[in-house]
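ok trying this again, last paste got cut off
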Amino acid sequence: MPDVDEYYRPPRAPAEGRSGTDEAAIRDAVERAQPAAIATRLAALLLDGVVGAAIGGGVGFLKVTALAAAGHAIPKPTLSPTLLLTLLGPMLYHAIAESVGGATIGKAVCGIQVRTEDMRKCSFGAALGRNAAVSIDLFFCGLVALSAMTKSPMHQRVGDKLAHTVVIKSHSVPPLASMNVANGIAFGLGAWVLEAVIREVLSLL
């Protein structure tokens, strides 16, 4: 007999009696959803990494420019407690973008999105949980995530299994009226930029 993924829960149909355009789309999505390819998910992750580098580099450049204009010495990079905040920005970016619109910039460009296992909109808590678990997935240079996804029928990594989420091809399912990709990306980017600015300011104290 083939191995059964003990963590994966097959999508369930929405409860009867609910109305609205989202419910019809969800029922359709349960039947049509296709998992995102592992290579596509990696490409999306790399694109979001480029976004992060642009944010960090841009905010850092503005700090150096402002200090130079004010005639202050530019501090040398040092290890400080504020470096821990570098983990907060990308986590908030992913959690907000995925819970509001289902996709970060990388995922939107690659045509994939995050949903719950029953094809509903991902909650903020679930999105935060799946991204917090990246620390587990990255063990052994990402082999933990790769192993989990290759054994899962919906290519779920450990974070997805814990949060009961899936990453699917956007074109394989009808859109949900409650999801707004542009707003999710805008709010997520805003949170990441704000975190970067606060971190740079704290580093000067």
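PB: full thing came through this time. The first strand starts at residue 112 and ends at 116.
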